[in-house]
Amino acid sequence: MLCLDGCRPDEALDRSLASLRTRLAAAPAEEAAVTAAELSRLARGRLARLAPDTPPVRPRTARPLRT
Fold first, then answer.
1. Of these four, 12, 13, 37, 51, which has the most CB atoms within 10 Å of its CB?
2. pLDDT tens digits for 30-51?
3. DSSP helix/strand/coil, 67
4. CA 37, CA 52: separation in Å to the nearest integer?
5. What is the CA radius of gyration of the chain?
6. Who's near 19: CB < 8 A, 6+ residues apart?
7. For residues 31 and 22, is the Cβ–Cβ distance under 8 A?
8. Is the Cβ–Cβ distance between 25 and 17 less than 8 Å?
9. Is pLDDT above 90 for 13?
10. Is the CA virtual torsion 50, 7, 1, 13 positive or negative?
11. What is the mean pLDDT of residues 3-24?
12. Comparing C-alpha atoms, which of 61, 56, 13, 15 is closest to residue 36?
C-alpha cells in the first residue's frame, strides 16, 4: 500500500518507485508497520472525502503489540 494523497501526478511515479526500493529492503516487522501507517493514511483520506465538514482528528502514534 502506498498513499499518494497530496502528491502531484508528475511526482507519483518517482515517489512510488522510491518507496518500493526502500520497502523491499525493509525487515518484515518494519514493512508491517509501514503498511499499517499507509493504510491508516488511505482510510483517513477516504473518510475526509466522504465527510468533508468533519474536523480532522490528530492520528495516534502506533504502539507495539504486547506479547
1. 37
2. 989 999 998 998 898 888 888 8
3. coil
4. 21
5. 14
6. 2
7. no
8. no
9. yes
10. positive
11. 89
12. 61
